[in-house]
Amino acid sequence: MSAAGLEDTAAKAGPDCIQAMTHALAMEFGRQGIRFNAVQPGSISSGMTDGSGASGQSLGPGLPADADIALCAKATPALPLPAGAPFAGPDAVAAVVAMLGSPDAYFVTGTEIRVDGGSHM
């Protein structure tokens, strides 16, 4: 399977499949010192959500013209965002990914980390 095929498969899989895959890979490769974790971002500001992407659309590239961006805002995070910000910045996810890739996460494997400000609760 090509890398693109694997990416498409993972993108279409449900959260339970991602969790099962993360656990299975962590179990299979843990003895070799290879860690597997899943990062689950919530609503994050990006070129797709703020319209700064290549197409310059108001809702950003990749979203259908009739997309109701207000629906995303209904998943209110438990943590406050900076005044007027509809979504967290990409730095919120980047910090978690950087930590997982660092020596500080030497004992973290087989888990899912949500970066959604508590909106899943």
Give structural notes.
- This protein has helices at residues 3-12, 15-29, 47-50, 69-73, 90-100, and strands spanning 37-41, 111-115.
- With 121 residues, it is mainly alpha-helical.
- A two-stranded parallel ribbon has the order 1-2.
- The model has no long low-confidence stretch (mean pLDDT 79).
- It is found in: Peroxisome.
- InterPro entries: NAD(P)-bd_dom_sf, Peroxisomal_t2-enoyl-CoA_red, SDR_fam.
- Participates in chain elongation of fatty acids. Catalyzes the reduction of trans-2-enoyl-CoAs of varying chain lengths from 6:1 to 16:1, having maximum activity with 10:1 CoA. Has no 2,4-dienoyl-CoA reductase activity.
> Structural class from helices and strands?
mainly alpha
Report the portion of residues in β strands: 5-15%
SSE string, helices as H and strands as E: HHEHHHE
**Arithmetic mean pLDDT:** 79
* Sequence stretches where pLDDT stays below 50 over 5 or more residues: none
Tell me about the largest β-sheet: 2 strands, parallel
InterPro entries: NAD(P)-bd_dom_sf, Peroxisomal_t2-enoyl-CoA_red, SDR_fam
Catalytic activity: a (2E)-enoyl-CoA + NADPH + H(+) = a 2,3-saturated acyl-CoA + NADP(+); (2E)-decenoyl-CoA + NADPH + H(+) = decanoyl-CoA + NADP(+); (2E)-octenoyl-CoA + NADPH + H(+) = octanoyl-CoA + NADP(+); (2E)-dodecenoyl-CoA + NADPH + H(+) = dodecanoyl-CoA + NADP(+)
EC number: 1.3.1.38
Subunit structure: Interacts with PEX5, probably required to target it into peroxisomes.
